[in-house]
Amino acid sequence: MRKIAKIIFNTLGTLSLKKIIKLLSLVLPHPLFAILSFYATIKSFTLAQKHFPKTNSNDGIGNAFRHALWCCLIMMYCCKISSPEKSLKWCKKMTDLHEELFPNEPLQAQMDLHNNKVGMNLFMELLPGIHRQFFETGFFIDVLLKKTKTAVVLKHPDENHGNELVYLE
């Protein structure tokens, strides 16, 4: 846990004043969503490290799993205090802003955005069958672990791999 906190605080320390203001303009109007998203971030890092100790922090399959799980968890926690529609809108804004604040190479950015979308789609697919108050982390882990078995290597930024996880070699 200490390692995760260090990573998060070191990462935040790299932000310029302009980027800090952009981040604050998103989180200050929605403090509960921001707190829940921060918790989802920590939880997704922890679970990705557990399941994919070697690839959760690079461009491998563990990173794909982490991004999709991150979005599922943000939506799960936010849906407990708000509507699925507002949670989805928040999750998209938050995860898109993450890519803007911490830019990657085009292929890495495409991979992260795609896997974020896979996570949001998974939550919305499961939503009709489960009341949003009863979602649990395990619902997503099992499905996402299965998706890692069929994940596809992303080779070009304009590729469309539907609802499959993607990663880089």
Automatic annotation (TrEMBL):
It holds the Pfam family DUF6973. Keywords: Membrane, Transmembrane, Transmembrane helix. It comes from the Bacteria. InterPro entries: DUF6973. Residues 25-151 form the DUF6973 domain. The chain crosses the membrane at residues 20-40. This is DUF6973 domain-containing protein.
